[in-house]
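Entry type: protein chain
Record version: 2
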Amino acid sequence: MAEQERRVGGQERDARGASGVRKARAEELSAWEELVATARRTVADGLVVGTSGNVSVRVGDTVLVTPSGVPYDRLTPDDVTGVALDGRQVLGTLVPTSELPMHLAIHRTTDARAVVHTHAVHATAVSTLVTELPLVHYMAGALGGPVRVAPYATYGTEELAGNMLRALAGRSGCLLRNHGTVTHGATLDQAYDRTAQLEWMCRLWLTASSVPGLTPSLLTAEQLAQAQERLRGYGQHGPEA
């Protein structure tokens, strides 16, 4: 009787374990589909050319990332690529993005669940001109404040990841000098929207500052702080933007 109970108990534990694995796998596949859709959106919206950007999303202790050098329209559910927080590959056989150090740096040090990196043309242009995006619009508040430019370092290096983290302190987005953008968020949609807002603000500043004989008016720190306060309540139950 005791032996039978042990067998039954073991079968129940095995069943629960298998169910947990299936659930985790389902969550990873769902997140992978969303990641691929976001990566394709960066191309469709002109934020990257070819495979020049990359995207990641965290599921538990696994970080799903776009693979290196694979066109996003060719990715399938079988191409799921994931790493542990220490960088060990735990899912798939495709080589992860070369910018893995940047993604892991954010996932290790913040509560972000998603990261989007692009080579958006206006944002990259601004990164070559200033050390901080001028306060041309209050939506800088949605990224935590004035958007900093991280000093240049070779792509895919720990040095670049460190420069990026310092530029991101207290922010959810930054520019990378002569390189592009990085934003993060609680979801892929939020991280992507922040990237789109950052590119729009860079385009706005470039457009306004290109008018001969005129200089764009900029917000003060106090005005930005007031906007940030209102943005905290933005949405269906908050004030109009």
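Comment: The two ends are 69 Å apart (CA to CA).
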